[in-house]
Amino acid sequence: MISESKPTRLRKENSLVFRSALALVLTLPLHGAWLSNLKEAKNQASEEGKDVYAVFLSTDISGACVQFKKRVLSQDLFQEAIADRFVTVLLDVPLKQTPGIVSPLAANRVLAENFGVDRYPTTFFLNSQGIVYARETGAATSGPLKHAAKVIRRAKDQVARLESIKEAYQR
């Protein structure tokens, strides 16, 4: 009797090629002035009179986050388009936990919980005082310039809303 062995399927996460590609994408530098600390971003925004564009990613489990980072956030076109209006902060949230190892990004997990993040990627728009005025969930399906235009439009909508409230209050 000849025993026939079943071919074993390599899990995608265990594939050397997959792990190498993921490591490359995760180490791609983000061009521009991406901060990794929300408190620093709020302080800088307050000093410069800008809003904060905060992005919560979980690149260890989400392909959408990896692609969003690669196709939009790491592009010079995106950074240049929003630099005049926003201080940008990228918060990578490690959702996989290895027993005995504490990730330096673990504080981002607590911050994400405080913001009520339940899906990744999630972006928040904060004014210069650190108050959230908009939230979006999901990765951009458009290119860097279209996404930048959407981000800027969201901020302009907020300014228009505040001006109309101010006018109504003064009447």
Nutshell version of this structure?
This protein has helices spanning 16-26, 38-48, 63-73, 76-82, 106-115, 144-170, and strands spanning 51-57, 86-92, 122-126, 132-137. The protein is α+β, with helices and mostly antiparallel strands.
Fold and architecture overview:
The structure is a single chain. The chain has six helices and four strands; from the N terminus they run ααβααβαββα. It has 171 residues and is an alpha+beta fold. A four-stranded mixed beta sheet has the order 2-1-3-4. A hairpin with a 5-residue loop joins strand 3 and strand 4. The longest helix is centred in the last third of the chain and has 27 residues.
Terminal-residue CA separation: 93 Å
Query: What number is the mean pLDDT?
Result: 83
What is the CA-based Rg, rounded? 20 Å
- Strand arrangement within the widest β-sheet reads 2-1-3-4
Instruction: Tell me the overall shape.
Output: globular
- Could you give the order of the helices and strands? HHEHHEHEEH
What proportion of the residues is helical, as a percent range? 40-55%
Derived from helix and strand composition plus strand pairing, the structural class reads alpha+beta
Low-confidence stretches: 18-31
Overall number of strands? 4
Largest sheet: 4 strands, mixed
Total DSSP helices: 6
| Beta-strand percent range | 5-15%
